[in-house]
Amino acid sequence: MTHADHAAIAQLEDVFQQQKAAYLKAPHPTLDERRELLQAIPGMVLANAKRLAEALNSDYGYHPEMMTYAHDVVSVAGRAQYAASMLETWTAREYREMEPHIYGSSKAYIEYQPKGVIGNMPAWNFPVELTVGPLCEMLAAGNRAIIKPSEQTPAVGEVLAEIIGATFDRDRVAVVNGGIDLAKHFSTLHWDHLLYTGSTAIGREVMMNAAKNLVPVTLELGGKNPTVFTEEALTPENIRAMMGMKMTKNGQVCINVDHSYVPAGSVDRFVNLIKDFVENTVGDYTQAPQICSVINTRQFDRLGSYLDDARQRDTAIIEVGSAAQRGDDSTPSRMPLTLVINPEQGSLLDRNEVFGPILPIYTYTDFDQVIGSIQSGDRPQGVYVFSDQQELVDKLRLNTSSGGFCVNAAGLQGAQESMGFGGVGKSGMGRHHGVEGFREFSNPRGCVEVARDNNLDLIMSPHGEVTREFLKQATGGLLD
């Protein structure tokens, strides 16, 4: 372990203890205090939007400025504003019914209490949104937070450390940057809650570390998200809707379109619609200024290995765009949009999440065949269907399980600030965004206030004749 790794771990331990002490001293911030914290976020990201865009461009090799503004700045600002506007509703007590014959006019309610100090390990694909976005619900719930940005986006991590440090007190929100050793240590601390976004394999390690300390976790992981087309839905408009999502971050999104199901007799039409859309909107996909690069050579080589495996199996491959270019220190890694027709079962593309500009296309002759194929795999973050046949849409929705479900769209379940977002099974657990996120980072404390007109003698030990008579009535005479 290097000196830098030791220093980062020491910094983490120090700020962790500082936040733990601060939480115990002031465990329940007022709504005004929470609102003030949330209202600082829009100004922070908007004032530093240019710097964040430059940092993302540096980390990726090439990342369009508008993509940063849309997905890592404006969306975060809106999420903070929404959380601030909903504070009174989210934090309100939820009263529950009580048996009046026993409890009289007593009260029972759920009170949402801050959990304490929360750790956040965001992924590299949305290094701002996955850092500051969940922070909105964490602060709304009254918590303190420590963030460990991905080591694959060091430039963004440096900017985040600076601007968050200038906006929040260190004992409220802090950023600690470092490499793999810091990441491994991060999940071993006694957090009050831990959020991890990334691969299923690393998520399993994070959960195992957290389990040793009984730390509750929220895991936002990967998944092979299917996109189903019925015959009448093969239109330019629907292709535009699907490709608008696939082109976001160049496919490097956990809820992106992973593969498509298309009627067997229409695969050529589907391919031509995609080609026409790409050529008419961005031209050469590989070099298009609207498309960000593959983040690094590690990811480029991973995607290349999937395609090499498909070629060795004589699978039909169609490249939309000029030839791929592996980057170096001065040039980004670029790939064409690559369509792969009916990858062989068990192939790398069939088994692994794509997470890039490759689209496997599977053909089907019967809709039940599609449902069976989806059911046989792990539960994904999203299931998407393009269809005007409501009966088939409902059949797909009711016979599959996923973190989200979209009709005539893809990925939009993760873009709603008012709706909880997450996976299921191997694609994740727990939710953030909206009231579900607020509750995820809160302790739903059950509270009872007993009134003087109670009849607790009916149930309290030691049990006597009063209890006997009560139980005889309650059980219909079963107790003699």
From TrEMBL:
Origin superkingdom: Bacteria
Residues covered by the Aldehyde dehydrogenase domain: 5-443
Active-site residues from the entry: E220
Statement: the UniProt record of this protein carries the keyword Transmembrane: no
Keyword set includes Transcription regulation: no
This protein's UniProt keywords: NAD, Oxidoreductase
PANTHER family recorded: ALDEHYDE DEHYDROGENASE, ALDEHYDE DEHYDROGENASE ALDX-RELATED
Family recorded in the similarity comment: Belongs to the aldehyde dehydrogenase family.
Name of the protein described by the UniProt record: Aldehyde dehydrogenase
